Queue: 3 jobs
Job 1
Amino acid sequence: MRHLTALIIILLTLTGVKAQSGLAIEPLFSGSDKWNLKFEATYIKGKMLKEYNLTLFRSITTCDTILFSDIEKAIESDAAKAIDKECGYINGKLYYGFFMFKPINGQNRYIFYRNSSLRSDENDESTVVYMEGYPSIEELKKMFR
């Protein structure tokens, strides 16, 4: 498992994709030591995304509760820059959020966030997804429900 995690980090770093550049979540996807403690990363680009009308999909999921607060702060920082958003809170903490950002080169940019640890009937897990492409925020919400 360590070898697979290391390989994913190396591949993400070598690709040099800075799509989320300028966003507070950028360090989550950079492969830095702070964030590679305990996470699962997914990076998809190209033909696999065509049916979703996306050009880039990156996600990180962690069960390391120590990181949850830092992740939420990054999400809330980026949420302030969103041009469209939908959020849900539990006890004053951000449970989920869909955020749309100003398009770059004609492509929409989105962050999806969910902190399942805020519900007693779900696992302690935090997920951040960054996407680029052409679907509307309504189309993406349907994919994540």
Job 2
Amino acid sequence: MDILYEELDPHNISFVLDTCWVQVGGADVRYWIEKLSGRLDILHLKDCMAIRDESGRQVQDMTEIGNGNLWIEGIIESAEKAGVKHYIVEQDTCPGNPLDSICQSADYLKKLIK
């Protein structure tokens, strides 16, 4: 990611960042949003939570925005300062009806994004 940041022309290339996968990869989501300030047009908002899989191993699973372990309020604050133009809510898996999940995420975000 550092190589892409350094080597790609900031006048011609913007970034799309996925909040959940940045965290799962062990990086600080807010750090990367701030580092990409002015070059981050789209932010994929995903929340994740730690669960146990069938073998008992701890893994990350997708959940509705606000139900997981990402600090969504801080992420939105950083994103607004960084000039993010578009937010995309994405949830790879849902526990029930996907429309219920997206409504829950949307309701949460409406309280944060002006």
Job 3
Amino acid sequence: MKKNNIVKKNYEFNSILNTGEKIKNKYFIIYYKKNNLDKYRFGISVGKKIGNAVYRNKYKRRIRNIIDNNKKYYKKNLDYIIILRKACLEIDFSNLEQNFIFLIKKINQKEK
């Protein structure tokens, strides 16, 4: 994931969480909001319930990998905040990717 495709500022993160729409399933909560840029951006949040820092970073790397492998599904002009739920520990990488893509496709249908 390129650095210019990351939501880094705390006020941007909070703006998306507070005023954006959300969609969720057993493994993810994804907040999304339109931006005035000609690109999509992502923010990833993994809570302390997932495990220690090693596990949290492992799952962040997995999410970044999923994001990079599925660029064709993202709409420009959208910011996404991805929050992992504890249930993500129970499934393997391919199922995690399928669930993520399913939610992104749902967001694309809503935005049409």
